[in-house]
Write a structure and sequence with these properties.
This protein is an all-alpha fold and 232 residues long. It folds into two domains: 3-72 and 136-221; 87-131, no CATH class. The chain has nine helices and no strands.
Length: 232
Amino acid sequence: MNLADIRAQLEDELTWRRDEMRLLGNVLPTLTSEPDRQRYRKALLVMLYAHYEGFCRSALSIYADAINKEHIACGEAVTCIAASSLASKFKDFENFERKSSLFKRLLPDDTQLHRFTRRAELLEVLGDIWTQQVDIPISDVVNTEANLWPIVLRKILYCLGFDHEAMKDFEGGIFHLLNWRNDIAHGTRRDGLEDHQFSDVENAAYGIMDELVRVVTEALAAEAFRKAPAAA
């Protein structure tokens, strides 16, 4: 694993987004009236949300991709990484509509029997599951759901083995960012934003971006996705 290259990817992803926001923000002081500046801050907020969501998705995808490239077995991975990697197998097991081929024709509606056969099938492949290579389905796990609320980010962090409360200090500002962004998009917020209002959500968004760079690089450096060696 080339940690320097991964760190560079994260920094580049963050830098171009900051540069674009800075370029757009440079227009703000040229506006001569405060009402115009307040309206312009609405446009800045919508763009800020796009960069917040886009960066989170990119940074966490880079992390998941780096883990996949390590080619470790599910048995070597921490629980959440293994569970994310095996999502399709669990989904198949949890599919209550799937019926055993042995009894599909003779007893098609015997729910208890088909549940039992799924359990038996799972046990048959359980040994092989732990030797299967970790392959996190990135688009499924790193799913920002078009509205990256704090609870959605918590969910993604948990599925990738991070502390799901790692970003809690920024959640208040992100709630405002999402609410105002949606209100602007839906036309229910027509008034502009005060300088302190935009600064609050901007600090929260960049706080999460900076923190993600830190936790992703530290987790990869420490190989936090691997199980700790068993004590002798």
